Amino acid sequence: MFEEQRIDKIKKYLLEHRSADYKTLCEAVPASLSTVRRDVDKLAKQGFLEKKRGGMVLSDTQINQVFYENADDLIGLKTEVGYAAAGLVQSGDIIFIGAGNSCWQMSKFITAENITVVTHSFNVVMELAPKPNIRLIFLGGDVEIESKKYFTSGSFAQETLKNIYIEKSFITVNGVSEDFGYTINNNYLAEIYTMLLKFSDKTYVLADETKFGKRAFRKICEFDAVGHIITTTGYPEEYQKAFAEMQVEVITSR
Asked: So what's the pLDDT on residue 11?
């Protein structure tokens, strides 16, 4: 295979997955380790990727380009929120990642090492399982399917979660409103997320700007019960004022 073809395959893989280790790239191209290392070095010099210990991640410049190309696309907003959330994960953390699309996007950007990830999302498991230096714990329970999201719920999942220490939880919602609080369309997810708000040291709510001013089927908590929210820069001004008054930590994507 010619160098140009190999590099094109590496680019496509990183644009889709955002990060990779050398073993995975050797299998995806396919090519020898020495050849892949040479191609990766070339892409690093071009600014396409950043080399990390044991692998590489897509460069911030390339990520911003992806965001720009998808600026009017809802998936682009979820990707932005997911990227910002992944940046909060530090080496050694014990975290929970929920089943929403923004959480799924978050899992693609995680580069921290020696972390423990607890999740009930099949999508997140499939994303993180190939990554090195991540201890992955999957909650058992009843399998649910919603809009191409596969996750577990029910009493078994809840009982398991009660016995696990979580430093940081990352969950998604379908609605954020001052009068009705944080809401979600799925009753099973609401039960899990309500528990996480009680048991986690910190709970981060991932909600892009389109979720504000909306109500969904099931309330998770009151508006003043969340201390940390991750969103996009276009969220409404009235909520900016409300969060400031309540001293809510707001992390925006850009």
From this structure: 83
